[in-house]
Amino acid sequence: MSRLKKLWRLLPLLAVMTFLLTGCGDPTLSALQPKGPVASEQLFLMKLSLFIMVFVVIVVFAIYVYVLIRFRKREGDNSIPKQVEGSHVLEIIWTVVPILLLLVLAVPTVSYTFKHSTNYNKDKAAVHVKVTAHQFWWQFEYPDLGIATAQQLVVPKDKIIAFELISADVSHAFWVPSLGGKVDTNPGISNTLYLQADEIATFQGRCTELCGASHALMNFTVESKSQADFDSWVAKMKAPATVPATAQKGEELFKENCMSCHAVTANGPGVAPNLKGFADRDTLAGILEHTPEKMALWIHNPQEQKPGNKMPAFGKSAGGKLDDAQINDIVQYLQTLK
Ligand code: CUA
């Protein structure tokens, strides 16, 4: 088979790869579709370095091909070509051009690196969020507002969100590709980061440090709201819960079985996710659909949904002590946690 034919056979593979790679662009989880200034500046740096690399490759290959053809050995010509060793002109060209290219890359990279490490944690105009990573969930505390939530970070649009990040157990890493990042969360040492959302939307976040059996399931979301909607969310989080009569049985069961870890208060403690406002969240445990069926499934045996997490199974057939009716009562109560 001719060489050309062999290459031709690779074409379908290339076509399939093109389709697969274009599928990577989920708009809520893509550093290539920035939705905030930090992410936009980081994308600019990616494009700049890509442009410089492509430019170098094209120029070098063009010269290479030109030299290969123009100065090839011709029949009957046995003369020694002109020797360029020690040519000052050439030495200067191939030293100065890379230096200039590196400067073009280095100046914006260094300046954005410093800009993006600005610590806004003392800035009164920023919204402060303390992020604590746990195996395998995220806790978001707002120390200035006296509230805490989990799995779904809520932020006002167009405002700098100043994060202080730490881990309660092993190392994790916090990343919201649409808004920028990412940064490690370590036990005992806090890191800082700031992000800002330009749009009212929900973005996806991921843990990007291998942290155990359910590392790949340690997802969270970031919901950006208008300032007015954010303020009313804060007020709602602080308002005392009202439990309808139909959910009181579930509340009793919840108090007996769940309250040693989960809180349902504005700024509940962080052994397990604070469930105040749980009914308004988009996902369950960051990965499951927010439906009564999935909630029951989760309480029955959370290890099946997210292996290695710290919540024990409550369903009788999974070794727990609650029957299906009791689990359903708890689910009914959870749905009232607005
Ligand atoms: Cu937490 Cu990976």
TrEMBL record:
It is found in: Cell membrane; Membrane. Residues 124-236 form the Cytochrome oxidase subunit II copper A binding domain. Belongs to the cytochrome c oxidase subunit 2 family. It comes from the Bacteria. Its EC number is 7.1.1.9. Its cofactor is Cu cation. Binds a copper A center. It catalyses: 4 Fe(II)-[cytochrome c] + O2 + 8 H(+)(in) = 4 Fe(III)-[cytochrome c] + 2 H2O + 4 H(+)(out). Keywords: Copper, Electron transport, Heme, Iron, Membrane, Metal-binding, Respiratory chain, Translocase, Transmembrane, Transmembrane helix, Transport. This is Cytochrome c oxidase subunit 2. Residues 245-338 form the Cytochrome c domain. It holds the Pfam family Cytochrom_C. The lineage of its organism: Bacteria, Bacillati, Bacillota, Bacilli, Bacillales. InterPro entries: CcO_II (IPR045187), CcO_II-like_C (IPR002429), Copper_CuA (IPR001505), Cupredoxin (IPR008972), Cyt_c-like_dom (IPR009056), Cyt_c_oxidase_su2 (IPR014222), Cyt_c_oxidase_su2_TM_dom (IPR011759), Cyt_c_oxidase_su2_TM_sf (IPR036257). Residues 23-120 form the Cytochrome oxidase subunit II transmembrane region profile domain. The chain crosses the membrane at residues 49-69, 89-114. Its main location: membrane. SUPFAM superfamilies: Cupredoxins, Cytochrome c oxidase subunit II-like, transmembrane region.
